[in-house]
């Protein structure tokens, strides 16, 4: 993709690595552009079924690169320029949620500010013991609500705890994140990829359309106006999927006590 973002496709899985280790993978203009291009094109990429997002070096992502040209552009070039940068970053999170592929984030070291937002916009999070997350925005003179954090965080851990983190910018460490259910597991950094394999294997064993529509329904029903609306969307998907060849294969495999061979049809 670029010098700042490495994408390696292994079978049906994209391993996406933020690659600015000398800056703790902080988001500069080039990395922002690369992330946006990558996640926007995923919507039509049927060959990729799952994405693993991780950071090179000592951290997952230290947020915006405050020591680079990006900050000067925001502070010196006026409101319109600042809004363009703001919208470009937030559009990464929107593209992540719109993508039909589940996203597994492997967190270690700093996952703060914009890095925290990338983690929250993912679907499954695994963390190394040294992972440190926070809504760092409020520490530098802007609000603690940024690029989707105020949307994702209350839904993932509840409003009270989200208030605490966004109003103070205090660190959320891996062990507490596990207790809160924000991360699925805490494992040593050298075992993160191995641990992700368990989740990848399970997701890749599902029918492609069933997996993609499951992510879609979860996202939409976070904002469902009520139970009936949520169940109506579930009904639509289940009826559509019941007409697929993969459903017939799944039923046949169950009856024959074998693993199903899904084809995405």
Provide structural commentary.
With 265 residues, this protein is α/β, with parallel strands linked by helices. The protein has eleven helices and nine strands. The protein has helices at residues 29-41, 69-76, 78-98, 114-121, 149-157, 159-168, 174-180, 192-204, 208-221, 227-241, 245-255; strands spanning 5-10, 13-18, 50-55, 103-107, 110-112, 124-127, 132-134, 172-173, 185-186. The strands form two sheets. The chain has a six-stranded mixed beta sheet, with helices on both faces. A three-stranded mixed beta sheet has the order 5-7-8. α1 runs parallel beside α3, α3 packs parallel to α4 and α9 (208-221) runs antiparallel to α10 (227-241). The protein is globular and about 65 Å long. The model has no long low-confidence stretch (mean pLDDT 93).
Give a count of the beta strands, DSSP E runs of length 2 or more.
9
**What distance lies between the first and last C-alpha atoms, to the nearest angstrom?**
30 Å
**What is the percentage of strand-forming residues?**
5-15%
| Most strands sheet | 6 strands, mixed
**Low-pLDDT residue spans:** none
Radius of gyration: 19 Å
What best-fitting shape do the alpha-carbon axes yield?
globular
- Give, in spatial order, the strands making up the sheet with the most strands: 1-2-3-4-6-9
Order of helices and strands: EEHEHHEEHEEHHEHEHHHH
- What number is the mean pLDDT? 93
């Amino acid at each position: 993709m670029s010098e700042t973002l490495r994408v390696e496709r292994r079978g049906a899985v994209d391993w996406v690595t933020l690659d600015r280790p000398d800056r703790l993978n902080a988001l500069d203009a080039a990395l922002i552009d690369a992330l946006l291009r990558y996640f926007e094109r995923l919507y039509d990429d049927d060959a990729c079924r799952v994405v693993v997002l991780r950071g090179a070096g000592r951290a997952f992502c230290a947020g915006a690169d405050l020591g680079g040209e990006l900050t000067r552009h925001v502070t010196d070039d006026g409101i319109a320029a600042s809004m363009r940068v703001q919208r470009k970053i937030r559009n990464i999170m929107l593209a992540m949620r719109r993508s039909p592929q589940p996203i597994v984030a492997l967190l270690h070291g700093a996952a703060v500010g914009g890095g925290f937002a990338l983690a929250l916009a993912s679907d499954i999070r695994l963390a190394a013991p040294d992972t440190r997350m926070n809504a760092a925005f409020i520490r530098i003179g802007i609000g603690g609500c940024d690029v989707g954090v105020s949307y994702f965080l209350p839904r993932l851990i509840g409003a009270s705890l989200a208030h605490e983190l966004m109003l103070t910018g205090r660190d959320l460490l891996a062990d507490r994140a596990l207790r809160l259910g924000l991360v699925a597991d805490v494992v040593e950094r050298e075992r993160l990829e191995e641990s992700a394999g368990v989740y990848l294997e399970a997701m890749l064993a599902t029918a492609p359309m069933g997996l993609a529509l499951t992510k879609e329904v979860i996202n939409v029903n976070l904002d469902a106006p009520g139970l009936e609306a949520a169940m109506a969307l579930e009904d639509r998907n289940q009826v559509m999927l019941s007409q697929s060849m993969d459903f017939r294969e799944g039923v046949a495999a169950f009856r024959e006590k074998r693993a199903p061979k899904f084809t995405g049809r």
